[in-house]
Amino acid sequence: ECVASSPVDTVAIRGAPVQLNCSAQSDTGSPPRVEWKKDGTFLNLASDERRQLLADGSLLITSVVHSKHNKPDEGVYQCVASIESLGIIASRTARLSVAGLPRFSGPLEPAEVRQGDSRVMSCEVNADLAPFTRWERDRQPLELDQRVVQLPNAALVVSNASASDVGQYRCVLESVGPTKASEEAELRLLSESGVERKPEFLLRPSALARVAGESALLSCVVSGYPTPQVRWLRGDSPIEDGERFDLVGGGSLQILNLTEEDAGVYSCVTDSGNETIEAQAELSIRARPRFLKAPSNIYAHESMDIIFECEVTGSPPPTVKWVKNGDAVIPSDYFKIVNEHNLQVLGLVKSDEGFYQCLAENEAGNIQASAQLVILDHAPAGGRGPVPSAPRDVVASLVSTRFIKLTWRPPAEPHGDNITYSVYHRLEGAGRERVQNTSRPGELQVVIQNLMPDTRYTFRVIAHNRNGPGESSAPIVVATQPEVQVPGPAPELQAVSVSPTSVMVSWGKPLTGNGEIQTYKVYYMEKGVDGEQDVDVTGLSYTITGLKKFTNYSFRVVAYNKHGPGVSSEDIAVRTLSDVPSAPPQNLTLEVQNSRSIMVRWQPPPSDTHNGELVGYKIRYRKGARKSDATDTTVSGRLFQLIDGLERRTEYTFRVSALTVNGSGPPTDWATAETFESDLDESRVPDVPTSLHVRPLVNSIVVSWTPPENQDIVVRGYVIGYGIGSPHAQMIKVDHKQRFYTIENLDPSSYYVITLKAFNNVGEGIPVYESAITRPQSDPIDPDVDLYELFHAPYTPVPDPSPMLPPVGVQASVLSHDTIKVSWADNSLAKNQKITDSRYYTVRWKTNIPANTRFKIANTTTLNHMVTGLKPNTLYEFSVMVTRGRRSSTWSMTAHGTTFESIPSSAPKDVTVVSKEGRPRTIIVNWQPPSEANGKITGYIIYYSTDVSAEVHDWVIEPVVGNRLTHQVQDLTLDTTYYFKLQARNSKGMGPMSEAVQFRTPKGKEGWGGGDTRRSSAPPCVPGKGGVTGGGENHILVIIIIISVGVFTIVVVLVGAFFCTRKRAATKSATSSHKHKSGSKDLKPPDLWIHHERLELKPMDKSPEPNPVMTDTPIPRSSQEITPAEGTAENPIQRRNSYRGESVAVERSAPPRRGMRPKIVMPFDTQPPQHPLPGSAQPVLPSDHPEPEGSSHGSASEESSSYHPPTAHVRPTHPLKSFAVPPVRRTAGAAGGSVPGPHRVIISGPPAQLKTASIGTLARTRPPVPVIVPSAPDVSETSKMLEEAESKDELSEEMAHLEGLMKDLNAITTA
């Protein structure tokens, strides 16, 4: 027997008929008898004229009666079905409510609304009549849309009002009976005056309770000028428009297909200029009761113990009660509720037979499940052979207060082996008997547990062989012992918290001490923690110290006498007093919203440091790093606060501390942020998108792009145009957050032109164009398609000549970040959608990123399927087809669902750290977004420390707001190694940290002006202008002296080399000739030509070096052209413009401005060191081979051996090769013990500023990569090289190179 259909909650109209459905079925063949209960009492339908019992068991009320003092039909109904000799079963309960009279409680008021503003018009009806209302304008039904919305309370919201909204409005009430309309009220449109009006709420959201699976509308209507922008938050997470969330009526939030995860506090926030207002409401989600385990039928013998299992869930947790044959089960000694909701029946008797129902109910609804208990008869004794005689000598060998041990001897006539025994026991005089079996054959004892002290019980034993149970032994009566005379419980137990770490416990003397009390033991335990502690006390009170602050503890007391411990008192719970928090809030971040406001976010302190209930947070902020003029503000109930009214382009510091009722705890470290100089601009159209990429397929083209470079202009979306030969045939608009789109339904082998442009409220920006040819239909292989797809194509059955209808109403319900539930309906099934044949459904799904992703499929025999293992924050499309036998349908219409966001599962990548030009205490950190962001990245956190093994909370934190990929870290210590890590953040939380990147700041030398504070502001020297800035005439004199000394030294070397050559010419003529021929071929430098306007060296033939160092040298000069030295143009082979091992670099900026001249930069030995980073380009010469003669070893002094030249700016488009020159002999006459090369000038006085820039790549912008020019070797290596150059050949070659150097010097001095 079962109830096939149960009644449901119904709203009826007074005077109208209503029907409550109910039907019952039985397997016995005889139809069950159906009756109805109202409010727990059976209805007498035989004599009732208005209520009728229909043939299927449903209840029909022909005319509902309802008045103020007479409500006979309103109440709770229940259908009861019974079959004689089997039992009774009841349906779930259903409430019948009667709607009030169709009337309006107040007139409709005329209203005015300004152009573009919002207005709310109320319809004054009872809440139960709101579902029966609609609106008319000018006596015509009003069409509702996203802009004009009817709220659940029947009110009408008109947003973004225009002239089309003007008219006569009225509210119409439609129910069973005549239609009733309210009086008409006019809505007039006023022109906007242009005067700013502060935003104000016309309608605030209110607390709402809904059932999971239903829809909810949180009302929020705001008025003001300029038109306020409304956004919603759940907790502190913003809500984006999506599959289930939609903004309607200008600001109200509609949520479809509610889930329990949607519950929470929702905030309606509106911003207009510098004004921000907020209203909150809580959305409660109730889930109807649902069985996790329903009771099942049980077949048992008398005297046995049985358990009906019932496990339910729901929100709020449902209450459970048991019913037997329609009557409530009252717990007793034999009917017990165990394990929360299970029903245990002890010692079955025949009258226990029947139907048992588990009824679960909460505020969202109620359900029931039934099971039948059948008592089986014992097989007749002796039917299959002899049975054992009665067991002998049954005695109670051990009697205690709560258990008895029985022993016996085997029967005199067992009639077989493997004899088992059953022990029956009952309270003396009771009719219900319980049974306990021995655990193994041949066992002659059993222990009966859970007895009551000082109580008489009757016991008997029966033996069983393979033929069945035998004769029963004679019953014996045994009384359990009384309890030992120990003390009773201590009365008047009290526990009072006297401080945050101590509790005083007091109690009274036990009423039944049973002798002198020797001591007391106080037991206490922290709630939720295993392990009880105790302390011995001789008095009647004790103060326990050393407890945790604001923590729940339980206490109990046990009295001891000479017999031992007595009965424990009941536990008493108390919580220690609160205190101020002992730790600051965590993860303080600052997000600059605009030029006037900064959003402050944080996380609570660790839970074990709260020391009380957190009542709020105190935010202190001040301008810059000043100690005074700080402003305090207090926040409660949220973990963020928008600080507005700030000054533009101003640095502010913030810190946050947690508050309890006792005060504020320690604050966080100061965090700094700077407001923007200006807000986003919407006074002009957006710039052109920075890139547009297309990827053609057979019938589609995947379009991807990047936003405009200027991020200061508002972009509200993108317009994609496409067509064959012209981009104006079709237009598609997409959201401003979108970065890709797939154009579908294209023709194969066709030439399409695609255009993309950004737009905002001002208009559309400049388009970018691209073209593509779709692939031919016969194209068999997509080179980017996974090989698996080529050999394992998705299963698509061959359609039957008469295919089945495809499933309809496909819906994709997002459940989590990796799970979507797909459900559908099948029109080829009966109305109840019950599957009775062998059909099955195939679900396929895929995502469009990348575009060639193949479908995944799964088969199911139900009308829904749970798709798991999806990627977070990813749009998936789903479709379904049905297959029965050899017939299959086509694929259904697609449904789409975007999985929820999840925390990033990978760290930011390509993290690099470089120095900032001219500021050694400042570095620039660059990175790329994580590969698996799992959502929109809302910021990054930079951790840096000088100890790579330090705990994370000991690292310094620098927050980065938004999707920026670069950040400056300032005020670092010079000549110190730092380690940097990055962590990405989205709306769900923080992702993993990147690997630590090492960087060492430069040493603090004079050339840097002592850090950032004493940097020279004088411009660099300009040759040809008659002086050196900052040094005056003395600097020119120093330059002339140094150059003169260098020239003199070179002349002496030349004369000495000339005479040595003549002496050795005769003896080495033969070998040197051959050696000169072979060596000159290798040493011949490449032909060069010089572009004097750009001063860029370009090779005319291939460089002999396998890995040349590519540098550029910007040479500042006067506006006049530098006249090259005599012979330079005629013999460019002897010209040397770049030297290995030196710090003069050629910098090429692309493109150069018109009229600009390159500048000469003279680096000093006092430049700070630049340490190479991993991946830096450093040419390395093998140590076991001599240096080629063409390489130059700079003559830097030993003091400057640690010197590393600064990074060079390298452009890969026009690389220049660095050609080496032979070494110059070291002389003692040079200042500082070093002889600079002919291109290197030592100048005392203010340093020149050496600019370093980032490295550009051909296709995209990458973080700066330092290129380190190798430093000169030490003096000993140079000396060895010079000693090897004593032959005539080497000196001759050296003379040829030195002649070129002399010409270089002449060119510099004459300029």
UniProtKB/TrEMBL annotation:
Q: Which GO terms describe its cellular component?
A: membrane
Annotated GO biological processes are: cell-cell adhesion
Give UniProt keywords alphabetically: Disulfide bond, Glycoprotein, Immunoglobulin domain, Membrane, Repeat, Transmembrane, Transmembrane helix
Q: Which residues form the Ig-like domain?
A: 1-97, 102-188, 199-284, 289-374
What are the Basic and acidic residues biased-composition ranges?
A: 1079-1104
The reply to whether Transmembrane helix figures as a keyword in the UniProt entry is yes
UniProt topology in membrane: Single-pass type I membrane protein
Record field: transmembrane: 1036-1059
Q: Which Pfam families match?
A: fn3 (PF00041), I-set (PF07679), Ig_2 (PF13895), Neogenin_C (PF06583)
User: Which residue intervals are annotated with compositional bias (Low complexity) in the record?
Assistant: 1191-1206
PROSITE patterns attached to this UniProt entry: FN3 (PS50853), IG_LIKE (PS50835)
Q: Where is the Fibronectin type-III domain?
A: 390-483, 489-579, 584-678, 688-778, 806-902, 907-1004
Q: Where is this region: Disordered?
A: 1001-1026, 1066-1215
Q: Where in the cell is it found?
A: Membrane
Question: InterPro entries given for it?
Answer: FN3_dom, FN3_sf, Ig-like_dom, Ig-like_dom_sf, Ig-like_fold, Ig_I-set, Ig_sub, Ig_sub2
Q: Which family does it belong to?
A: Belongs to the immunoglobulin superfamily. DCC family.
Q: Output this protein's name.
A: Neogenin 1
> Species name for this entry?
Scleropages formosus
Q: Which gene encodes it?
A: NEO1
